[in-house]
Amino acid sequence: MRNVVTVNDNTVKSNPIRDSANKLKLSIFGVNGTGASFTHHPDRFSGDWDAIARLAKRADQLGIEGFVSASRWRAFGGDGHYSGDFMETFTWAGAIAAITERISIISTLPISLLNPAFVAKAEATVDIISNGRAGMNLVCGWFPPEFDLFGVEMQEHNDRYGYADEWMEVFDRLWSADSSFDLKNAHFDVKNALSQPRPLQSRPVLLNAGGSPRGRQFAAQHAEVAFTIPDDPDPRAVKARVAEYREEARQKFGKEIQIWLSAYVVQKDTTAEAEAYAQDYIVTQGDDIAVADLIEANIPNAKTMPPEKMAEMSYEFKAGYGGYPLVGSASDIAHRMSELSEAGVDGLMLVWLDYENGLEKFASEVLPRLEEAGLRAPATPV
C-alpha cells in the first residue's frame, strides 16, 4: 500500500524510499558531515554546508531515493577529530528538505539518548517542510562517550533494544494521535501527551541496521528497511542472508520489509586504477588511530580477536564504515550491483571518499548501465 500524503496545494506526494518503482533503490549516507571513510587522504569529503547542499540538489536531480545522515555526538580519535564534525540530524534534515523536491531525507538518531516527544515534534517538522519525505534511521546507541555526554547510563545490548521497543510505542502514539493520551510502560510514564503540529505521513519511513538476533527482531518489527552486513560478499551468501531477514519479518510480524546493504564506491576507468586508489586511501593514508578507537568501543571482544580479523575489520571501517565493496570500473560496479539485486537486495546506501566527484562519475557511467539492465528508470526532471 502506498503511503501518500496530500499537501496544501492539493498535489500528492510520496516518500521515494517507500514508493519508488526502481527495482534497485539508492541512497547516500554520511552527508551531514565528513562522510564515512576514515583516512587522511586529501580527497576526503569536506562536509561543509555548501558542499552538502550541492550534493543534495544533484542527488535529487538524479532521482536518488534517499539522503541519509549519520548520528555523531562525539568524535573517534580524540577531541577535534574530523569524525565529530557532523551536523545535528533533524536541523540538517529541515535544511535539506527546503532545497530539494523529491528525495527522502533520513535523520539518524540514537533512541537511547533522545526523548520520543522531542523526536516526534522534530520529525513532524521535517515532514511538513519536505511535504512528506521525512524518514528516520533508528540506532540504539553504542558509543560510551556519547552516553557520558548526555549523562545517561548505557544499558546492556538486549536491554537497549527492550528500551527501544517501548520508545517506539510512545513515538508511534505521538505520531498518530489526534487527542492527548496517557501511556505507561516499564520505561515511560507520559501523561496528557500530544505532539503538534501534525505530520503529513501516516508514519515516517523507518530504517534500522540491527545485526544481532535482537537487533534483527527490532528491525523486522518496527522498520520498513533493514540493513544487513553479509559475512561473505559472495552473492550466494548475500542471497541467503537477505532471505533470513525477510523470513523473520514474515514469520514473526506478518510483514514485508526491504533489505538494503551499505556499500562504498571506488570507481575508476580500470579495475587496476580503482584497486590502487583504494589501497592508497584505505591502507597507505588510512586513519588507524580513529578506527582502533571505533572498534574498541563497538566490538566488546576486540582485544581478543585474531590479528587477521582485526586487520580485515579495520580495513572495512577505513574504506567506508564497513560497507560492501564496489571497487572497479563502471562496468565492474554495475555488474556487482546487478548481482546484488538478483540476490534480493532492494537498495544500496552508498558512500564515496570524494562524494561530489564520485557521484558525478557514477551518474555518467554507472546509472546508464543500471537503466539498461532494467534496475532503474531514467530520472525525470525536477
Automatic annotation (TrEMBL):
<protein>
    <submittedName>
        <fullName>LLM class flavin-dependent oxidoreductase</fullName>
    </submittedName>
</protein>
<dbReference type="InterPro" id="IPR036661">
    <property type="entry name" value="Luciferase-like_sf"/>
</dbReference>
<feature type="domain" description="Luciferase-like">
    <location>
        <begin position="47"/>
        <end position="346"/>
    </location>
</feature>
<keyword id="KW-0288">FMN</keyword>
<keyword id="KW-0503">Monooxygenase</keyword>
<dbReference type="Pfam" id="PF00296">
    <property type="entry name" value="Bac_luciferase"/>
</dbReference>
<dbReference type="InterPro" id="IPR011251">
    <property type="entry name" value="Luciferase-like_dom"/>
</dbReference>
<keyword id="KW-0560">Oxidoreductase</keyword>
<keyword id="KW-0285">Flavoprotein</keyword>
<dbReference type="InterPro" id="IPR050172">
    <property type="entry name" value="SsuD_RutA_monooxygenase"/>
</dbReference>
